[in-house]
């Protein structure tokens, strides 16, 4: 079946005998890769006053001073990593080590038509390729262009030049780039555009691949549109796998279902998208989507595993501007890295990994939905097509060796839930119509459902209020507290600017 097609993978240059031998030995398994922003490569951050502001403030030590400006990204590297932001190779090396720890096979590095061979980001891209040469984590070029096709489409020569600029570092660092089925992998981020922009025709875009002797010599992962008809037969036949940009989706938004139809129609592989939170909150990214903590992330991962997707496209590794970075950050520490590793190991090995030690993870917004804001000029809005409205919640994820009871506290509120061994999720939320999905909420929600329901893998509790201040979750066994996790920063009911970023906290059995 098309959905279950998984090819053998090699992580080194397919043109060498060593790579051919490795490809024969490595068992078929899904490829886990994450979108890698060119402008947030650890070690290669451009020197500016804005960057110095971000690297000098610790959100845990000075929560009221963060963010230092309404225009600055809310999430950033952790206080441990921030000093490496401009450290060159040492920073990039640390970035790849973190990606390996998170269970990634590759990083899909964003490259536009203006980045290579010369731009402010060119040195960072080349440095990433240099480090990837000797890393287990390889690079996948992820092509996102900024051409306005309605006003000034690129010439064929310019498209070929774009392809050549991508191929040059692949030739220079042949062991740095991911090989699948004997072909270099390239991801196409946005040639199909969205519903309001003019898309590329395949007959034009294929010129990008002429430097490789044609698209047949590459393995192409294509971000689709939300309808099969919008993709078209030419693109459908050209792609080797279908994915989607899900970072801007909210919990349970149905857009990824088109991938099943595309994979079946064209007998191609799936590159299932997995996304965390989405919050802009600054000029140019004023939208958001409610993910209900890790509810969306966990659902996406379970869907990828159930579908036996050949690729899992994590969105993203390091995009701080939209709050969906899974790397080690000031707001979430290593929480997303650790849970991504759990699911990546599950996908790679075909079964949930054994739990080595008990762990509790606690997620919530930085602010309450109705927080009082004294200086805000930018208010992120939940787009009308999202299913879940912007919601106050507490989201507890547990990975336990044995069953236990979790006690969750927020202000005067207290809830308990019995949770099984393994990975389990508990969502406590306050029903909300704040920034809700469209004018006819009842009809829209009746069609799709606004919130998750209790199931074998998820417990759902409806609350009257989530209090400001610190929240905490405690593991109880035989009535005795054995492990407690507490918010790294308090949930705020006021602030200068809006900040609905997702905060992540964790405690493990050997960390208390």
Query: Approximately what portion of the residues adopt beta-strand conformation?
Result: 25-35%
Low-confidence stretches: 1-27, 436-448
End-to-end Cα distance, whole Å, is: 48 Å
Mean pLDDT: 89
Kindly name the structural category: alpha/beta
> So how many helices?
11
Strand order of the largest sheet: 2-3-4-6-7-8-9-12
Helix content, binned percent: 10-25%
Q: Biggest β-sheet, characterized?
A: 8 strands, parallel, barrel
Walk me through what this model shows.
The chain has 512 residues and is an alpha/beta fold. Helices cover 22% and strands 25% of the residues. The protein contains 11 helices and 24 strands. It has an 8-stranded parallel beta barrel. Helix 3 packs across helix 4. The longest helix has 17 residues, at 156-172. The protein is globular, with a radius of gyration of 22 Å. The model is unreliable at 1-27 and 436-448 (pLDDT under 50).
Indicate the topology.
Blueprint: E1 9-10, H1 17-25, E2 31-36, H2 49-56, H3 89-101, E3 106-111, H4 122-132, E4 138-143, H5 156-172, E5 179-180, E6 183-188, H6 202-205, E7 219-223, H7 233-238, E8 241-243, H8 258-266, E9 269-275, E10 278-279, E11 287-289, H9 295-306, E12 311-315, H10 335-349, E13 359-365, E14 367-373, E15 381-382, E16 393-400, E17 404-410, E18 413-419, E19 422-429, H11 441-448, E20 458-462, E21 471-477, E22 480-486, E23 492-495, E24 502-508
Parallel strand pairs: 2-3, 2-12, 3-4, 4-6, 6-7, 7-8, 8-9, 9-12, 11-15, 14-23, 19-20
Antiparallel strand pairs: 1-5, 5-6, 10-11, 13-16, 13-24, 16-19, 17-18, 17-21, 21-22
Helix pairs in contact: 3-4
